[in-house]
Amino acid sequence: MKISVYHTPEEVPTGSLPDCAIAIDVLRATTTMAAAFNAGAEAIQVFSDLDELISVSTQWPDHSRIRAGERGGQQVNGFDLGNSPLDHSPARTQGKRLFMSTTNGTRCLQRIQAAPLVLTAALTTRQAIVNYLLAHQPKSVWLVGSGWEGEYSLEDTVCAGAIIQGAIAKTHLSYLEIAGNDAAIAAGSLYLQWQAQLPELLHHASHGQRLLRKDNTADIDYCAQIDILDIVPIQQSPGVLVWK
Q: How much is the CA Rg of the chain, to the nearest whole Å?
């Protein structure tokens, strides 16, 4: 298994696909997706366009859908929720389909959705992702950060590094054997440097700073937790995620 890291969707190679592509948006889309599944969401359907989300979700009864829209870190007017993992509880989410559009994470998923196997990952689900990869052994894996409007995001790279280090710890493979590109080695090194200070790293990150300016420390601290959920969101069909 060779694991490559791409910091943003724009870095993803064209003209080829891996056996497995994994979207990462620690702050906050992929963390929120895992939290929604943990709260009992039936499925998550992602959109880059808000109008398309509204059109498609109208086909579902009000009592069985949640519309979640976020732009620039804020909930979109007229939507049920924004993009916070803390929004989801069994009372609110159990048995419902989440129709979701965010600034960066859903765009990342759409960039890789043609891969034969598409997952989403967060720090909260790191070990579950590692276990899945080692059980299924895809030959090539892309870890794709969502970034922020095309720019690098520290928290997505540290999550990619955490996945790589988790795989190395379980297999005892070397970087020479597992790294598919230089960015994979850099991501693993970043995680090793900060693994005991993940909340601090997310507070330093530029998107963490955006959330702090909105007095949103609760989301940052939740997203910085590692290995708390045994959940692997999997793309069932383009744009539709389920939990298996």
A: 17
